[in-house]
Write a structure and sequence with these properties.
Layout (H helix, E strand, L loop, with lengths): L4 E9 L14 H4 L11 H7 L5 E5 H6 L15 E5 L7 H10 L3 E5 L15 E5 L6 H10 L5 E4 L3 H9 L5 E7 L28 E9 L5 E8 L7
Parallel strand pairs: 1-6, 1-7, 2-3, 2-6, 3-4, 4-5
Antiparallel strand pairs: 7-9, 8-9
Length: 236
């Protein structure tokens, strides 16, 4: 497959949670800075985030959750181009305007023909990738490489999308910043969500990882880096 080299870069708790709860009101970006023992080392995640690829793939749901749809003043242009998967849509026209100001190039990937992004279709730094019914993610990643010459891509989406990408062999590397926290909750989003496995044949879908590097950070944080082993065998 001719696609960008992809790295899943996320912040999670020791028990694999990427949110502080199941409510839309709860979010690690908003909540971790309030919690002693966690807030002290949090800045290291954002510093590492600045070193990731210049193309970042996320979801409209995540951007809406962190307040991108709110009116913002003096938005600073980022060196990063954002790719946003958004079908519902979760982004409003205001959110799109904010992202256009923030992005080098803004890519909106959607199946929603009534998405508000079409009101901005003539913006010079906007690319709309539309699919009729379901997003063909293998086709999408090949298009990003072949049509837009994207060689490296950081994935920072939610657990549902992460699961889709992993099952379709679209994640090459993992870089996880682990916060010194235990959150719990069976409905709290985790690094990889999606449908649970129910049979022995599903074991072939589990992805093994090869540890590449462990960085021990300050204040009990760690950064784990892995390569994803795409093909494994089930031995009886």
């Amino acid at each position: 497959m001719n696609k960008p080299l992809t790295t899943l870069f996320m912040l999670m708790s020791i028990d694999g949670k990427i949110s502080t709860g199941s409510s839309e009101l709860l979010d690690v970006d908003k909540d971790f800075p309030k919690i002693t023992g966690i807030k002290e080392g949090l800045h290291q995640y954002y510093e590492l985030e600045q070193e990731t690829d210049l193309y970042s793939l996320n979801s409209g749901k995540v951007f809406a959750k962190i307040g991108m749809n709110n009116k913002q003043e003096n938005i600073k242009k980022s060196p990063v181009s954002f790719l946003v998967i958004d079908n519902k849509p979760h982004l409003t026209l205001q959110g799109i305007e904010n992202l256009l100001l923030k992005s080098q190039t803004l890519f909106i990937i959607t199946t929603n023909k009534n998405h508000p992004v079409f009101e901005k279709k003539n913006e010079i730094n906007l690319k709309i990738i539309y699919y009729d019914n379901n997003i063909d993610f293998i086709n999408l990643f090949e298009k990003l490489k072949n049509d837009f010459e994207i060689d490296k891509l950081t994935i920072q989406s939610g657990g549902e999308l992460n699961s889709v990408f992993l099952r379709k062999n679209l994640i090459d590397k993992i870089s996880i910043v682990v916060a010194p926290a235990l959150i719990g909750g069976k409905n709290t989003p985790s690094l990889i969500d999606g449908n649970s496995f129910t049979s022995l044949k599903d074991l072939a879908e589990i992805k093994a990882l090869k540890l590449e590097k462990v960085d021990i950070l300050n204040d009990s944080y760690i950064n784990l880096k892995y390569d994803v082993i795409k093909e494994t065998r089930i031995i009886d």
